[in-house]
């Protein structure tokens, strides 16, 4: 069965060649031109990868990304945008995107990134049944900012990695919500703490999907604790 890609792009002169290129690569491609259609499509027609433009006519692509993750979408999201600034890149990853490509981009580079995202998600999902049978411990490579379950990499966003790294460094101890917000977002964060809950929810989903022995447990009114598994070396 062909792997499925959703292209969310309102500019036809960008969308058409992109769709044709991906179809020639053998992907089953759906194209929509606004954010609401993207969310509706993800509900009715799940895909492995979303290629998401930020400058959509109805609402911002970052909002599409956030709503998709809040609704439980666990596939890969790659943002493509003319906003090449560092702030937009970081914000996009914080909202749950897995990769970021600035316009103008070469189709060959985009194809390579799609293949890389599919390898990561397929590896994580394909190993779930075997891992759940016997469980895998987490291995965190802090220098490379990468996380592994056994030999398979767990694809995490920047904020998911930072939250997990703090919890792992304090394994079996409760880390307060306030500390996580201050250390991961910064003490001057003005947004809702629901951002932390969304990030924890996605992190749990990804860890459970590969059957790791560790679990992120909520301690009501206090914070979160990472339980189970060996201590990281």
UniProtKB/TrEMBL annotation:
Cellular compartments per GO CC: cytosol; protein-DNA complex
Modified residues (4-aspartylphosphate): 53
Alphabetical list of PROSITE patterns matching this protein: OMPR_PHOB (PS51755), RESPONSE_REGULATORY (PS50110)
SUPFAM superfamilies named in the record: CheY-like
Domain OmpR/PhoB-type: 130-228
Chain ranges of the Response regulatory domain: 4-118
Coiled coil start-end: none
Start-end of DNA-binding region: 130-228
InterPro entries (UniProt xref): CheY-like_superfamily (IPR011006), OmpR/PhoB-type_DNA-bd (IPR001867), Sig_transdc_resp-reg_receiver (IPR001789), WalR-like (IPR039420), WH-like_DNA-bd_sf (IPR036388)
Name assigned to this protein: DNA-binding response OmpR family regulator
Keywords: DNA-binding, Phosphoprotein, Two-component regulatory system
Keyword Lipid biosynthesis: no
MF (Gene Ontology): phosphorelay response regulator activity; transcription cis-regulatory region binding
Source taxon at top rank: Bacteria
SMART domains linked: REC, Trans_reg_C
Annotated organism of origin: Nocardioides ginsengisegetis
One annotated GO biological process: regulation of DNA-templated transcription
């Amino acid at each position: 069965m062909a792997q499925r890609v959703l292209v969310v792009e309102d500019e036809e002169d960008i969308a058409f060649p992109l769709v044709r290129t991906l179809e020639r690569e053998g992907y089953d491609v759906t194209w929509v031109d606004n954010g609401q259609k993207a969310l509706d499509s993800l509900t009715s027609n799940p895909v492995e990868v979303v290629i998401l433009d930020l400058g959509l006519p109805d609402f911002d692509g970052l909002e599409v990304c956030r709503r998709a993750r809040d609704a439980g979408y666990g596939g890969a999201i790659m943002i493509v945008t003319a906003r090449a600034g560092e702030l937009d890149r970081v914000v996009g990853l914080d909202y749950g995107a897995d990769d970021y490509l600035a316009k103008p981009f070469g189709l060959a580079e985009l194809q390579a990134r799609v293949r890389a995202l599919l390898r990561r998600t397929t590896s994580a999902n394909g190993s779930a049944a075997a891992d759940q049978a016997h469980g895998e411990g987490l291995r965190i490579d802090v220098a490379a900012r990468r996380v592994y379950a056994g030999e398979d990499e767990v694809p995490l966003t920047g904020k998911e990695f930072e939250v997990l790294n703090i919890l792992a460094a304090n394994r079996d101890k409760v880390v307060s919500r306030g500390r996580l917000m201050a250390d991961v977002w910064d003490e001057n964060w003005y947004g809702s703490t629901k951002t932390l809950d969304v990030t924890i929810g996605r992190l749990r989903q990804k860890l459970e999907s590969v059957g790791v022995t560790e679990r992120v447990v909520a301690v009501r009114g206090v914070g979160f604790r990472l339980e189970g598994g060996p201590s990281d070396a």
